Structure formats: C-alpha cells, structure tokens
Amino acid sequence: MTLDDIMTEWEKDKSMDSTSLDSESLKIPDLHHKYHKMLSAENAVLRRMAARVEEVKTLRWLYFSGKLDEDTLKKYNWEPFDLKVMKQDTQRFVDGDPILNKYVIELGDQKEKIELIKSIMSQINNRSFQINNAIKWQQFLTGQ
C-alpha cells in the first residue's frame, strides 16, 4: 500500500455525519480495526525492509573492503571494487553508496507510512470525544 493509498482511504473515512452521530459512534471500532490491520501489515513490511538494509549494508561494507567473494559479486551483478580503501574510510563509502541508499530511502518512506497510520489511529481514538462534544454543542444550541 502506498502513502497515497492510505491518504485516499483516510479521505473517505475522516468525515462524520453530524446528523447521525449515533451511527458515527458505532463506526469507530470498524475504523480502528481497518487502520490497525494496515498498521500491522506495514510494520511487517518495515521489519523486512530494516533487515534488508542491514544485509545490504554488510554486503556493501565487504564490497568496499575488498572482501566480497566472486560468487557474490556475480550474484548481484556488481563489478569488482578496485580502489584500496583504508579500514577507517570504508564506512564513508558505505554511507554514500547509492545502492545502499536506495534501500535506506525506501525504509524512510515506509516509516512515514507507519507514522501516518498512527496519526490516523490517534484521530480515530479521539473520535468519541469529538462526537461527545458535538452532542453537547447541539444540546447547548437547543437549550437542553
């Protein structure tokens, strides 16, 4: 699921019908379930992505250290790294590596999706308070 997909779903779900607050109140558990399911799925993706980043980081460190074997180079279709890098400089190459950074960026995007879902769930959790305030406001307006 993309960030845009999540935003599109929330665009549909965020509005409440102020004339039917009782049914809006009854929708809260369903909305919570929907977004909790999304959160669980996206957290699973995040765990796999984080593991992949660590894998690639190790492979790229071995690559820049000159310790990566020929089979692994062929497996990933990487050219041998011919520069001799001092041990203390290897991390600098790893940190600036475009292959690794592609995965790091994807991991950041995944974290952003999770933060959005958590924010949506917070709004859903506060919905009962919003409904209660709307009811009190309506009662105030009618003099009850």
Give structural attributes.
mainly alpha, 0% strand, 144 residues, 5 helices
Distance between the termini: 46 Å
- Count of alpha/pi helices: 5
Q: Oligomeric status of the shown chains?
A: single chain
Unreliable spans are none
What does this entry look like structurally?
There is one protein chain. The protein has 144 residues and is mostly helical. It is 79% helix and 0% strand. It is built from five helices and no strands. α1 runs parallel beside α5. It is rod-shaped and about 80 Å long. The two termini are 46 Å apart. The model has no long low-confidence stretch (mean pLDDT 94).
Q: What's a concise summary of this model?
A:
By secondary structure, the chain is mainly α. It has 5 helices and no strands.
Give the SSE map:
Blueprint: H1 3-13, H2 21-65, H3 70-76, H4 90-95, H5 98-142
Helix pairs in contact: 1-5, 2-5
